[in-house]
Each structure stands twice: as C-alpha cells, then as structure tokens.
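Example 9 (inverse folding). The structure is encoded as follows.
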C-alpha cells in the first residue's frame, strides 16, 4: 500500500492509503462503555492496513477512543489505546474461570457487580455519599460516581495541543443538560479540552454533568449514540470513506428471559440512530439529485439567480461509502455488557473489532467511492454473511 511520510508541521496529515476519488477517511465511533475496546480493535486493523483517518468523531466511550487517536502521533496511537484499556480493566475478577457459558456468565456478573460498587481504575470511583442520601444541591446529589480519575487519565494519554493543531479533524457529541439540545464540540470551531471529551461520556445518573463555560453537559448518547449526522451535515463537496463503528446491534434473537428483554431494549435504543441517519440522508440525497435534474432541464433564461446557484450547488453533492462495523454480542453476555470491564472481556472485544475490520477490508469492491449520482452506499460484513 502507498504510504506518505509524516511531517512535523502542525497542519500536516499522514494520509496513508485511500481509494481513488476519496477526499476524506472518517472514523465514527458510537458509545457503549466497556464495549469500546471493539473500536480499539477496529483502529488496529486500519492502522495495520495503512488506513489512517483524517476525521475522528465519537460519542461517550467513542469520544475517549477518538481523543486518544487524534491526540497522539500515528506511531503512538495503538500504544496509548492499549494503555488506556489495560488501565481501566486492571482488576482481577476471578483467578480461574472454568470453560462453559454458565461459568462465563457468572464471572461476567461478578465483574459488572464489582464495577457497580467499586468503579473502574483510572475512569470513575463511587461518591463518598450515595446520591439518594445526599441533600439537594450537594456535589454528591446528582451522580453515583466521580469521574475525576478520567480527567487525569486523559491528560496523561492525550496531547490536547496536538488535537488543537487540527492535524486530524476531531469532534465529539454531547447534550446540554438545560436545553436538551445535542451539540458537537469540533476542533475546527473551538479549542478542545479534557472537559469536552468527559462531557460526551457523562452518562446520567452514573456520572455528573460536566461544566463548560456557563453550560452543563451530559452524554451525547441520550439523544444520539452516533456522531454520523455531524459528518453528513457538512456543507462541503468531499467524497468520504466512512468507518462507522457501532457497539449495539439493531438485529438480534427474540428475547426469552427478562435479562434478554433488557438487553434487546438497550441494543435497539442505542443502535437506532445509525439506521435513522443513513436512511434519512439517503432519502435527502435522492431528492437533491432529482431537484438538480429538474432544474437542469429548465432554460437558464427562466431561472432566477437563486435557482441557478441552487442548481450549481446540487451538481457538487459528495458521494459517501459507509463501512458499518457492528459488535456482535456473545451468547454469555447480558444487558450489563456495557459496564462489564473485565480484562478477559476487553481482550475479546478488541479481538472482535480487529477480526471484523480485517474481514471488511478483504472486500476490495467495498473500498471504493460510489459513482457520481449514487449518493450514500452502506456495507456491513455481518449482513453480507447473512445474505450468503
């Protein structure tokens, strides 16, 4: 594959390999707590294939992974991702786990229980006073955990000066706790600090709001668990190859127990926005192209200046290829899979992301920009296997 030398200039980018007519490679990371190690595996496979993103966007745990990727030079990214995931899973659950799903389910339940009562190293820790017992207005009254350890971890593992140099486009999504509006913190618009990343992952009632300026923010996953919309909303003409990494699958078996019901509810709730976004923008692209075709048939003398400008703008609609990578839940995982932070599960999630991405990259016919007029084309390796 073609490799470009990395420069030390703050505005330079290591482009790596990209398909013909591709102006931008984007890595879009959904929220999902402990499942976020899957995204680290995805990045590892892209890194090994010399495909480096020049836009990284995330929500919640995706925002943390995105910050580590964008906030480190290419040669340090995997090392830093590994340091983060090793640190927050640095707790032994069982010294030995017998083979079999029943034993693994029991061990995972123990792991998620320990997270609930102890928090996770380098990530979050329980409040001194339980929120239900704290008086209104007290620091402990609105969340069960303190995320100060995460701030220290981010400052150690992420170079925010590098993020703010704009060498890589970086954005994370959060929700304004007062207005309920979804917002994006984008390094092309504002300076990024640890608080912007923490705000994107401040999921209530576990975590407190994060104050930025005079506003307070919660986890972006409350409104939209994927930041794909921000990328597709850009008013530019850049053709994009987009790796959309989801941690909750919209497809799954019919529930048979109450735990299954809780798991399916969570999967559907947090996965639906990706489907909504791609369907919405495919429809919008179609109408834009029909509008352009209709305006092109009208003689210029009959068009106003505004209509001619619209016609010319619609002629430059970009094309997008979305490669959707979706974590597939293991049979022994429960609805608590997003806060089950054991080292064993972390390594499994990482390995799954790596393997799924390598499988996706073998489909050379997918690694192309759609022809003019195609709009948005989406590929999913798991659904491709189902069709076969």
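The amino acid assigned to each position is listed next.
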């Amino acid at each position: 594959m073609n490799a470009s030398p990395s420069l030390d200039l703050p505005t330079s980018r290591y482009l790596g390999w990209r398909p013909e007519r591709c102006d931008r490679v984007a890595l879009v990371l959904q929220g999902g707590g402990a499942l976020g190690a899957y995204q680290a595996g995805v990045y590892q496979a892209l890194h090994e294939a010399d495909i480096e993103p020049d836009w990284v966007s995330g929500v919640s745990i995706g925002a943390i992974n995105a910050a580590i990727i964008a906030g480190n030079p290419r040669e340090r990214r995997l090392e830093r991702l590994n340091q983060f995931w090793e640190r927050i899973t640095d707790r032994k659950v069982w010294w030995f786990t017998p083979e079999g799903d029943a034993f693994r389910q029991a061990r995972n339940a123990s792991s998620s229980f320990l997270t609930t009562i102890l928090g996770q190293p380098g990530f979050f820790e329980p409040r001194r006073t339980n929120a239900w017992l704290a008086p209104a207005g007290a620091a402990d009254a609105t969340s069960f955990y303190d995320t100060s350890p995460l701030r220290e971890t981010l400052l150690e593992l992420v170079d925010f000066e590098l993020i703010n140099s704009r060498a890589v486009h970086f954005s994370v999504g959060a929700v304004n706790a007062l207005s309920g509006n979804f917002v994006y913190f984008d390094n092309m618009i504002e300076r990024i600090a640890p608080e912007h990343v923490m705000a994107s992952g401040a999921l209530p009632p576990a975590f407190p709001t994060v104050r930025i300026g005079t506003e307070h923010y919660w986890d972006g996953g409350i409104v939209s668990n994927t930041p794909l919309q921000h990328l597709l909303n850009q008013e530019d003409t850049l053709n994009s190859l987009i790796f959309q990494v989801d941690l909750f699958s919209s497809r799954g078996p019919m529930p048979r127990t109450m735990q299954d019901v809780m798991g399916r509810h969570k999967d559907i709730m947090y996965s639906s926005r990706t489907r909504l976004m791609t369907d919405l923008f495919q429809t919008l692209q179609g109408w834009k192209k029909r509008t352009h075709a209709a305006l092109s048939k009208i003689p210029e003398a009959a068009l106003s200046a505004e209509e001619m400008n619209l016609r010319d703008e619609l002629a430059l609609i970009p094309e997008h290829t979305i490669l959707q990578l979706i974590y597939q839940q293991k049979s022994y995982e429960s609805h608590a899979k997003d806060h089950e932070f054991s080292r064993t599960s972390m390594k499994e999630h990482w390995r799954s992301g790596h393997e799924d991405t390598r499988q996706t990259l073998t489909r050379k016919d997918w690694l192309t920009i759609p022809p003019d007029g195609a709009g948005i084309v989406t590929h999913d390796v798991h659904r491709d296997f189902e069709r076969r």
